[in-house]
Recover the amino acids of this structure.
């Protein structure tokens, strides 16, 4: 449809101003806001579209948080804000599912047997320091982390960041839609943590959004949880299957519009149903179809599970209120990660994130630099999360929750430094960035001074 | 608040789609409007919804109680609202409540059972009242099933936030919405504002009001959460056996919250939902809704621990089942329509020629007898081709608390959908549409009983007459003696609570 209408110029009330505005409170945005506040920003506005923070792990039911930590070191220590998540959730009974400190890193066959069927726990032959969160307890934890910053972070819930205010190639703020109507927020530094780089894209920054249709990131999902089950019993059954049996089990699930075999949660009577729906999370039609089709197919999928040990009484507990995303736009910044660089990692001076492919431990991980977060066409805008500058294949290797936490935390620190030193976001002192990152318990390789 | 403004330059908005009837908001009112419009013959309906699913406050806000659908032995709230019930009955665990066959029954054992389950909204002092509790996830699915059945007529736009009406003079021509694809437009012949807070009407030039006082139910917000791991029926038995402890427990929980909170049943015995009332909060103000949501979540651990320690025999294994992904709303802005419903509509029941919903309400002044809701109560003044059914219906600050609950949202939504379909078919406007035709379709084809309509059985009117329109109550007598009910009787207040519906 090529019809258009003209919307005349409009006067938008400015409702607030801050040093730093973060748009999106998912793993990247929430981490960015905390990091900025802790690095000295006196006021951080945190804009969030939904009524809860967390994005994918809370609203999207993406309950699995793997560890990347130090990708060269197999001790499985986790760092920074991801460690805080784990520590805080551990304080609650049933706050998360994780291996014990003794089990983590273990190659003991008995321990491995216990965790074998729990997806994600065995990474490269030993037990990972990963965890599955309770999405609602996690909502509470995330709110508490904001509250603990003593008022420096000002949340704006149920506000959708929909446009950028840009003057002479520098961002000055964002526009939100809300129940109070269309409003403007002015900020010195804006962090786009929308996941899809919405603010950057709407500000006119170039981006790529192509995906190989076979790639993980080209798919979306509407997750759900089932209850009334004995997940341990199901895991024992799954562990007893040979390769052929496992393939048959997975196939028996996938035939329902590519739903996955039920995954763990923090409670034995629940499981998480993920899926792989071919579609883009920035396409209205695809978002609609994924939601409609998943709801249509779930009842039959659950009925079909009743034949499996442990799942005989499975019923639908709830549906994720947010559509699950994996990858979309990658904003063009001053450095772009490519598959060539994945094959031959470069040790960038301005490194912020060191990672193997996905969450693999490797002798030679990539070093993702700060320059991947600063758009070519807009100053004082920092992108955080999966929309960093990268080709689709490079992005597909490193765009899960732990990566977003680190990039968000780095972006927040960078924003605070830009304010403190009164510089543009693309010109901050990298040695200061690294010093503040270390102070916030973020991982940096020893060779980084 | 800064007085600064930013001038956003003129822009060109791509038109995403065009249709006959555009419904903005897929909650109780909007979903019902889209379905009703399609069933009334409109083959070109778009349903636009901000989130990824329909149901609004019910499925996202977890407001799971559908109260007060009958008066004595007759069920007046039928149509799509009753359809939710009959559809969900087929799914185990999806709905529970005394059905229409129990309306008006007087049986002490049945009354006790249903009172223990659903409280005073399901059991009057003397008889059972059709009402039910829902399982929200099954309703989410069923609402899509209803849309799928009408897929040749309704196109759904999820993840699309309708933010501004497109006005040509005083005529509404469509809506601008925000999405992951950016700012876009849908053009339509008739637009139904089912946003709940008159979001579109407020920007259309139609008069709206947000006048309220601190005693109004609508002056409060909520964030509902559900608690699992304890038996609701065991809790009810404990409450009956320990009334003083029960009162103290409720007071203790409310103290931790800082405002009143109360556990309600769901169809599952091991899951309950917690309603709450944060006073002096406006669901249409960013700061208020943010505070409601974060404050409630921050107190939840303490609330759970209190239940576990204060009443371990019931709550020792209780856990937080989930927290609603949408704010619980009661009311904010509402239209000042061509008719404003007021308290006198209960005490001095009016016959409205343009009645489009004949609804029992939670108001006890007339013992939950039905009142006639006119088309003019969803018809904004001064603008054409814009209707406003649902939570933001035209009513004064006292009446709104009784007439914007879920059943009225469904009923007025259904009526708006039919009215829009008829207006388009007859090339009429929302002010010139043939309301008698709308009524006939509702009554004859959509199972909506209407007063003085040839398609509605005489027994409905007879029941009302036989039971004196419910005006035998003390409160009704007083109001009628005073000649004016306005402001003299409120069956529920923020400070006092009430005997009947506490939603």
């Amino acid at each position: 449809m090529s019809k258009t209408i003209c919307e005349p110029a409009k006067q938008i009330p400015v409702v607030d101003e801050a040093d730093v505005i973060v748009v999106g409170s998912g793993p990247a945005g929430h981490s960015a806001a905390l990091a900025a506040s802790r690095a000295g920003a006196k006021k951080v506005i945190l804009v969030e579209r939904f009524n809860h923070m967390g994005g994918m792990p809370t609203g999207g039911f993406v309950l699995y948080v793997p560890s990347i930590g130090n990708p060269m070191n197999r001790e499985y220590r986790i760092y920074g804000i991801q460690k805080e998540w784990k520590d805080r959730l551990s304080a609650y009974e049933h706050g998360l599912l994780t291996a014990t400190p003794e089990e983590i890193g273990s190659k003991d066959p008995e321990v491995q047997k216990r965790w074998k069927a729990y997806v994600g726990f065995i990474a490269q032959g030993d037990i990972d320091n990963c965890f599955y969160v309770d999405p609602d307890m996690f909502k509470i934890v995330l709110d508490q982390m904001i509250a603990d910053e003593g008022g420096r972070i000002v949340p704006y819930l149920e506000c959708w960041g929909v446009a950028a205010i840009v003057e002479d190639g520098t961002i000055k703020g964002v526009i939100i839609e809300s129940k109070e109507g269309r409003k403007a927020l002015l900020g010195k530094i804006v962090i786009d943590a929308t996941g899809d780089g919405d603010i950057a894209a709407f500000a006119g920054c170039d981006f790529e959004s192509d995906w190989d249709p076979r790639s993980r990131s080209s798919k979306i999902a509407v997750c759900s949880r089932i209850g009334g089950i004995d997940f341990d019993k199901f895991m024992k059954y799954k562990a007893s299957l040979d390769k052929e049996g496992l393939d048959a089990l997975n196939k028996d699930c996938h035939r329902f519009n590519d739903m996955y075999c039920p995954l763990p949660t923090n409670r034995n009577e629940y499981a998480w149903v993920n899926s792989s729906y071919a579609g883009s999370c920035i396409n209205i039609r695809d978002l609609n179809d994924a939601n409609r089709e998943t709801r249509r197919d779930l009842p039959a999928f659950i009925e079909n599970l009743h034949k499996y040990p442990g799942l005989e009484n499975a019923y639908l507990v709830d549906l994720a209120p947010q559509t699950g995303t994996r990858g979309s736009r990658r904003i063009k910044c001053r450095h772009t990660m490519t598959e060539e660089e994945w094959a031959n990692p470069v040790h960038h001076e301005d490194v912020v994130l060191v990672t193997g492919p996905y969450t693999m431990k490797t002798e030679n991980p990539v070093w993702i630099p700060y320059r991947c977060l600063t758009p070519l066409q807009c100053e004082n805008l920092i992108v955080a999360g999966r929309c960093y500058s990268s080709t689709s294949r490079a992005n597909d290797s490193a765009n899960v929750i732990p990566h977003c936490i680190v990039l968000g935390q780095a972006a927040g620190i960078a924003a605070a430094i830009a304010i403190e030193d009164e510089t543009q976001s693309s010109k901050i002192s990298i040695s200061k960035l690294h010093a503040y990152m270390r102070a916030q318990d973020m991982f940096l390789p020893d060779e980084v001074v | 608040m800064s007085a600064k403004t930013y001038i956003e330059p003129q822009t060109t908005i791509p038109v995403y789609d065009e249709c006959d009837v555009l419904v903005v908001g897929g909650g109780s009112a909007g979903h019902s409007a889209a379905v009703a419009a399609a069933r009334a013959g409109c083959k070109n309906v778009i349903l636009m919804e901000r989130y990824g699913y329909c149901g609004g406050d019910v499925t996202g806000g977890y407001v799971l109680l559908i109260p007060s659908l009958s008066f004595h032995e007759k069920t007046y709230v039928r149509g799509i609202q009753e359809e939710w019930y009959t559809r969900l009955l087929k799914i185990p665990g999806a709905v529970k409540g005394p059905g229409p066959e129990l309306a008006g029954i007087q049986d002490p054992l049945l009354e006790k059972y249903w009172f223990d389950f659903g409280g005073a909204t399901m059991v009057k002092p003397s008889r059972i009242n059709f009402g039910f509790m829902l399982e929200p996830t099954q309703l989410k699915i069923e609402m899509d099933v209803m849309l799928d059945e009408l897929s040749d007529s309704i196109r759904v736009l999820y993840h699309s936030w309708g933010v501004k009406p497109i006005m040509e003079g005083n005529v509404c021509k469509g809506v601008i919405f925000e999405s992951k694809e950016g700012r876009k437009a849908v053009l339509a012949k008739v637009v139904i504002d089912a946003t709940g807070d008159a979001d579109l009407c407020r920007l259309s030039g139609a008069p709206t009001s947000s006048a309220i006082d601190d005693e109004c139910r609508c002056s409060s917000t909520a964030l509902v959460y559900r608690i699992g791991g304890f038996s609701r029926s065991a809790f009810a038995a404990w409450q009956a056996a320990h009334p003083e402890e029960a009162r103290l427990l409720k007071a203790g929980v409310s103290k931790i919250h800082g405002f009143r909170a109360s556990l309600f049943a769901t169809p599952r015995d091991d899951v309950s939902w917690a309603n709450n009332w944060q006073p002096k909060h406006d669901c249409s103000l960013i700061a208020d809704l943010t505070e409601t949501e974060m404050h409630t979540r921050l107190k939840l651990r303490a609330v759970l621990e209190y239940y576990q320690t204060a009443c371990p025999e019931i709550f020792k294994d209780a856990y937080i089942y989930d927290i609603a992904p949408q704010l619980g709303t009661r009311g904010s802005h509402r239209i000042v329509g061509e008719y404003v419903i007021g308290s006198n509509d209960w005490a001095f029941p009016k016959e409205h020629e343009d009645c489009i919903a004949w609804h029992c309400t939670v108001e006890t002044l007339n013992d939950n007898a039905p009142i006639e809701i006119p088309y003019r109560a969803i018809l904004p003044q001064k603008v054409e081709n814009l209707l406003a059914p649902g939570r933001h219906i035209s009513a004064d600050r006292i009446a709104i608390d009784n007439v914007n609950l879920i059943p009225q949202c469904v009923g007025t939504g259904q009526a708006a959908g039919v009215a829009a379909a008829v207006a388009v078919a007859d090339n009429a406007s929302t002010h010139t549409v043939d309301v008698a035709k709308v009524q006939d379709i509702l009554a004859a084809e959509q199972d909506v009983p209407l007063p003085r309509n040839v398609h509605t059985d005489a027994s409905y009117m007879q029941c009302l007459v036989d039971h004196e329109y419910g005006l035998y109550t003390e409160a009704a007598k007083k109001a009628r003696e005073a000649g004016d009910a306005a402001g003299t009787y409120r069956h529920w207040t923020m400070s006092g609570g009430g005997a009947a519906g506490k939603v």
Residues 384 and 433 of chain B are 11 Å apart (CA to CA).
